[in-house]
From TrEMBL:
InterPro entries named in the record: AhpD-like (IPR029032), AhpD_core (IPR004675), CMD-like (IPR003779)
Descriptive protein name: Carboxymuconolactone decarboxylase family protein
Alphabetical list of NCBIfam families matching this protein: ahpD_dom
Domain Carboxymuconolactone decarboxylase-like: from-to ranges: 23-96
């Protein structure tokens, strides 16, 4: 499979995407646990059918020590016993924030209240921003049919 478009070859798209990539880097430095961040990215990517992001984030999570059991159960997190209550709250907020058009009135208050029980205001801000960023990446990758399977861990790490 070949991508429909190389957006990084476009001066305008590349410039805009660099800001989105930078936002993702800022989130890595937040107090939101890195394991939770990867779970969120994977779950949103599953919902959106983004193979490129699934390739990247499952490999990055595994390299960071995430177990195959937990990675394999993300899509069924409601029935799985391997996630903490905080992670479950983050996954629920991710689903509701990703499927916003499917719900009447957006993210339910109960979902927000549950997340707020587990995360402080800075972490909630990071979580909301992370959901926003991964959904933007997912949509761009799906629209342009970015291929998956060849991602190498650390491939897109910022240059030092």
């Amino acid at each position: 499979m070949e991508a429909r478009l190389n957006v990084m070859a476009s001066p305008v798209a590349a410039k805009a995407l660099k800001h989105l990539i930078a936002a993702g880097q800022v989130l890595k430095e937040s107090s939101l646990p890195s394991a939770t961040q990867e779970l969120v990215k994977i779950r949103a990517s599953q919902i959106n059918g983004c193979s490129g992001c699934l390739d990247m984030h499952t490999k990055e999570a595994a390299a960071a020590g995430e177990t195959s059991l937990r990675l394999n159960l993300i899509a069924a997190w409601r029935e799985a016993t391997v996630f903490t209550d905080a992670e479950r709250a983050a996954l629920e907020l991710t689903e509701e924030g990703t499927r916003i058009a499917d719900g009447a009135g957006g993210v339910p208050d109960a979902v927000w209240a549950n997340a707020a029980q587990h995360y402080d205001e800075d972490q909630l801000s990071a979580l909301v921003t992370l959901i926003l960023v991964i959904n933007a990446f997912n949509r761009g990758n799906v629209i342009t049919q970015q291929p998956a399977g060849s991602y190498q861990v650390g491939q897109l790490a910022p240059a030092s």
